[in-house]
Amino acid sequence: MNRAIPFHEPIDREAGGVPAHLIVCEPSGRWAVALRRELGPSARVFETRSVAECWERLARSPGSFVVVEATAGNLEPLLAKMARRHREFPAARVAVVAERTFVANSLADREWLLREAGAVLLVTSPRRAGLLAGLASRHLAERPEPPREATERIWAELPWTAAR
Q1: Residue 142, SS3?
Q2: pLDDT at 53
Q3: What is the tens place of the pLDDT at every residue in 7-59?
Q4: I need a labelling partner for 84 at 20 to 30 A (CA). Which of 74, 104, 117, 153 fits?
Q5: Distance separating alpha carbons of residues 128 and 130, to the nearest angstrom
């Protein structure tokens, strides 16, 4: 099911007019594939492979929607970064994904720490990527539209352009 996503690069005016993105941080690429399937071909998904790389990308685009896979190797750095996210990137939103077995074995006692640190959603199966896609679409749609030239604005506002 394709979700409507903005065709423009959403601009975060609070961040000096920097576009907001969908950033996916995971080692395998599996969640990014599932999100692209849900969002359709026009979706721009920026993939990173480490929490540090993800936060570097977020620093360049501070109003983004971030999907991070929690693993045994990145849980502590992820919690540390998320604890500071409210101060550093208040316009960003973070959803956490994880393997179901990891949640049952290792993450169960830390799930509430992730939620308290600001995780808007915790998902354990790519089959539920529709939830992530919906949240990401809504977040990016709320970002202001980039400034356009006067000619573009006029053409976009003409009544017959909606009929195309």
Answers
A1: helix
A2: 98
A3: 445 544 454 567 899 999 999 999 999 999 999 988 899 999 999 999 999 99
A4: 104
A5: 5
Which helix (DSSP H) or strand (DSSP E) does residue 74 occupy?
Answer: none
What is the Cα–Cα distance from 31 to 127, expressed in whole angstroms?
Answer: 10
In this prediction, residues 147-162 reach a mean pLDDT of 74
Q: What is the largest CA-CA distance in the chain?
A: 57
Q: Chain-centre distance of CA 148, in angstroms?
A: 24
C-alpha span between 97 and 30 (Å, rounded): 11
Amino acid 29 reads G
- Supply the pTM of this predicted model: 0.79
Which residues is 19 bridged to in the sheet? 11
Taking 80 as the threshold, does the pLDDT of residue 107 lie above it?
A: no
Residue whose token pair is 């929490």: 51
93 three-class SS: strand
Alpha helices in the chain (DSSP H): 30-39, 51-60, 75-88, 100-102, 111-116, 129-142, 150-157
Domains annotated on the chain, with CATH = 11-163 (3.40.50.2300)
| Partners of residue 23 on adjacent β-strands | 46, 66
Q: What are the structure tokens assigned to 31, written together? A: 């969640």
Q: What angle do CA 89, 127, 131 make, to 5 degrees?
A: 40
For residue 139, how many C-alpha atoms fall within 13 Å in the half-sphere facing its CB?
24
